[in-house]
Amino acid sequence: MSKEKQRILGVIIVAVISLFILSSVKAVNLASETKDVPRIFVEPLAVINHSLSANERFNVNVTAYNATKLHGFRVELTFDANVLECAAVQEGTMLRASGATTMVQMINNTSGSIEVSVNLTSPEAETGGNDTLLWLTFQVKGTGETILHLDELALYDSAGFSLPHATYDGYFNNKFIFDVAMPLALFCVTLVSTFLNQKTESKLKTTLEEKEFKTWDAVLLVIAMAVMVSLIVLLREMIAPLMILFLFSYSTLLFIFTYILSNKRKYLAVIPPATFVLIYAFFSTTGIWQYYLSNAYGIIFAILITLYIGTLFTWKTTIIFTGLLTVMDIILVLVTGTMIEAARTVAGLNLPVMVQLPIVPLIMDGVGKLGFSGLGLGDFFFAGLLAIQTLKRYDKKTMILSVVAMAISFGIFEIAMLTYWRRPLPGTFMIILGWAVVAISKILLNRQNKSKENILPK
Asked: Rounded to two decimals, what is the model's pTM?
């Protein structure tokens, strides 16, 4: 291979691996608001906990952000009286910190409503900033879900004039929650990636000059991922270079596959990456991108990353890589929280670093919108790599069983997150447990069959 071809191949591999590393950051849903008007939240926005049974209590706050010239407020909060009842209402610290106050409240647990009015007693007193307006204690009556709706909320200044504001309702759910959409998506994307690998692997190996990862390469890749996640946190202000690196990596990946599949027609290979960049430039802040195009590109890139990087692994390097990656994922998510902090940085880029699907059966989140579940592209790659290597090592039946097991294992942990824990878990850990059950069972079965062959008379 000429030196020029080696340099080009090196750039391509670095671009695709960079995309995989960056896509391994688990994005999280973050409520963001940049308007100047006061924002009134029920916090937490969602209380989803199956363990909150009858007679159990929990607390929520009504909190104001960016308030100005606030002299008093009046609010009616409504809820489903069959599910909850209000046990107590207390005035928050926002108004009280600026002087004496008067408070009038009325709780109606039959209709499911709370009416509260709080005012500063000094006629000219006003306050502002970020602080709590009310503390509410609810007692659970039964199993179900309900919106904690801020109805007829009014903020006013010392002259009695109404202040503009935005409100965000709360949500309570103590039902058993499960999701079929994301486990099914994991199953389908992994299966598609595995079957496409059989058709594209020979062409990709030719492009990569039959290169394969050695043990040290797999170790270095995991180290590079940990370093990249840490750098995203440390250099969180450098959004523009991060976005450029993402776009370059995505575009390179699209160019490579189109170039290979179009029999090396460069003029055709330029079209998909150019189209992606233009669509991102014009639609990345729209709803059609958030709910449709981002997911579509996310699935496409998850498959392409799996096909491209998957050809570089062997069975041995796959075992080493997946083991180290799982340990790293557990540390960065559960111990240091670095992965979550990195996700906060990446979330603002609106890039397809994950697939987000509505939770099915549908639930509503704390602002009255559909609840969503998300899975990073790195986790789709992780499952695809395991499935591809399982097919090479064993057979199609074992591979399909492993994909089913990975989807089921992920689904079980997702139930735990949605119903009980309400915090991120390492996707690699959820996936590898399902795969390990099938892989270990296959190894034991092969040993048992080999033992029987040795016992039988020849």
From this structure: 0.73
